Amino acid sequence: MADPTERYAGAEAQGPEQLEHPGRSADMERTPDYGEKTYKGSGKLNGKRALITGGDSGIGRAVALAFAREGADVLVSYLESEEKDAQETCRLVEEAGCKAVAVAGDIQEENHCRKLVSQCVSDLGGLDILVNNAAYQMSQEGIASISTEQFDQVMKTNVYAMFWLCKAAVPVMKPGSTIINSTSIQAYQPSPQLLDYATSKAAILNFTKGLAQELAPKGIRVNAVAPGPVWTPLIPATLPPEKVDQFGADTPLGRPGQPAELAPAYVFLASDDSTYITGERIGATGGRPLP
């Protein structure tokens, strides 16, 4: 039995590691745990086809790895600047015996979102699981420091892209398909330094609840995962050094989560283990309570 407070002892932040945005796993001094040595599949997603945005690193890579070890083929959506990370994710998927397709581009563009869905159908033969995971954040001192350009980027990456992808995906999804959106503890406990990001994550939560009700009669389930502080490349690339140094230390478990600890929640929501669950969210917050 693993003590959750000690599971990643020694892996906590030790000094102000910093990366240039968007942050690449390959450049990190303390590489996140993606489950390479620990996740063991049991065929829960055999024959499924998944599209994962932000699948190059962070939570997206851990989910891609877990999905593949459960038997799903995966299309990985990523920014061109994250090519090296994306190829590593694809290597892990293929190592698990499943097909990997990597598609670079910016999900802030509606046409690219449509392309992702159509390419998933053409290259993988269909789309059964859509994971809206990619996100943009950038810490600021307060509302006066948030530019309109940044606000637009946050909303287009986190909210508009989810809307465009879902709109394109639903017509090609069959009963039994699932949509999983990544919201955040920020939807419930917004940090002033992440005002725009927190706003987008609250929107994702309500979007999930509303779309779930529309699609339930079609046999398509829509759920969300709400992470707390999780150690991914986004953190040292978007937070000030003093925040990185103490990241996750204020949770009841006393540490940040690792992507490998989030992936099983996505597997659960994508699999037939959760067929009576839709319009819900799973919190993975290190003990911080959610309403």
Features:
291 residues, 7 strands, globular, single chain, 8 helices, alpha/beta, 7-stranded parallel β-sheet
Give a quick rundown of the structure.
By secondary structure, the chain is of the alpha/beta class. Helices cover 36% and strands 12% of the residues. A seven-stranded parallel sheet has the order 3-2-1-4-5-6-7, with helices on both faces.
Provide structural commentary:
The chain is α/β, with parallel strands linked by helices. 36% of the residues lie in helices and 12% in strands. Strands 3-2-1-4-5-6-7 form a 7-stranded parallel β-sheet, with helices on both faces. The radius of gyration is 18 Å and the shape is globular. The relative contact order is 0.17.
Strand composition percent: 5-15%
pLDDT averaged residue by residue: 93
What oligomeric state do these chains adopt?
Answer: single chain
Q: Which residues form runs of ≥5 with pLDDT under 50?
A: none
* Biggest sheet, spatial arrangement of strands: 3-2-1-4-5-6-7
Which bin fits the share of residues in helices? 25-40%
* SSE pattern, N- to C-terminal: EHEHEHEHEHEHHHE
The Rg value, from CA coordinates, equals 18 Å
Helix count?
Answer: 8
Number of strands: 7
Helix- and strand-based class?
A: alpha/beta
